[in-house]
């Protein structure tokens, strides 16, 4: 499945209400350009990832969930994983090893993201983000591991009264921020944190 347009909005697959799409070990997805989305998951739809190969750009969107569900169960080979979820029924759970791009996993409008105890979120590019929450009622949880090697990266970002919790491990490289809190956001940290040269554990604005 490919989406290679560089100047038009394109969707590789739309997962509608009461529908389930399974990306397994033999599945292949290629997302090109800047305006394309690999998967669009609407309310009641579920996207299960248990393998497969995905080629994406560092800024490209692998999936957008509108009150949809996305579950990473086993290690997909995705070079840059950027996913957005919105709505009170929207949820992303990760229980495997994934690699994020510049957008990472983003939640808004009361959606939630959970990186489980077996979940490992890696980032190798500069300006990477792992978990992002925007808006009241929106939440992100890190129970596993986040490790971002690129400079000017952010592990967990909460904005506009969103809430973040980290009971796991967070590590960022140089000139980066582990926990970025803005405009009434709240983050609770009881796990471990390691930062590189000229980096900050907290940045609050």
Keywords:
eight-stranded parallel β-sheet; about 200 residues; mainly beta; disordered N terminus; about 0% helix; 25 strands; 13-stranded parallel β-sheet; globular
Describe the structure.
This protein has 205 residues and is mainly β. Helices cover 0% and strands 58% of the residues. The chain has no helices and 25 strands. The chain has strands at 2-3, 10-15, 20-23, 28-31, 36-41, 46-49, 53-55, 61-66, 69-72, 77-78, 81-86, 91-94, 97-108, 112-115, 120-123, 129-134, 139-142, 145-148, 154-159, 163-166, 169-172, 177-182, 186-189, 192-195, 200-204. Strands 2, 5, 8, 11, 13, 15, 16, 18, 19, 21, 22, 24 and 25 form a 13-stranded parallel sheet that branches.
In short:
By secondary structure, this protein is mainly β. It is 0% helix and 58% strand.
Helical element count? 0
User: Which structural class do the helices and strands define?
Assistant: mainly beta
Strand content: over 45%
| Uncertain stretches of 5 or more adjacent residues | 1-8
Helical coverage, percent range: under 10%
Overall mean confidence score, pLDDT: 89
- Calculate Rg over CA atoms: 16 Å
Distance between the termini: 42 Å
How would a textbook summarize the main sheet? 13 strands, parallel
Count of extended strands: 25
Basic shape: globular
Instruction: Provide the succession of SSEs.
Output: EEEEEEEEEEEEEEEEEEEEEEEEE
